[in-house]
Each structure stands twice: as C-alpha cells, then as structure tokens.
Design brief:
The chain is mainly α. It has three helices and no strands.
Amino acid sequence: MLANKRVGLEVPRDDRDGSFTVNSVSESIKRVMVEEEGEEIRKNAWAMRQIFGNVKLQTKYLDDFASILENYSVSGN
C-alpha cells in the first residue's frame, strides 16, 4: 500500500518463503535514502509525517470521530 502511494518501497522477498536478504534490505534503504529515485518517496514521507505526527490534529480527528459515533448511536441508526 505505501509503495503505491510512493511513501515507501517494497523490499524484494524470496518467492518461496517471503524472507528478505541482507542485500535486498540494504539496497532498498539505499534506493530510498540516497538515490535520486528515492527523492519523491522522501518528500511524500515527510508530508505524511506532518499529518500523522501532529498530535493535536490526530486528537481532533479522534474527537470528531467519537462525536460522530455518539450521534449515530443516539439517533437510533
């Protein structure tokens, strides 16, 4: 999912058992953190950090969601 949103990169896995190799993890980290192709991923990850790392904003979202749930159950739906 994160790879599709361009905020992460999927590490190649062994087709037989799904395991990672040291080299595949190392190469994936290098691609994201150092290589030019990782620039978009770094930029997108930073933008998501600004949203998901904002405690005040997340608290507001949770409060709003709880309010919706309370009103939904009170209205008999």
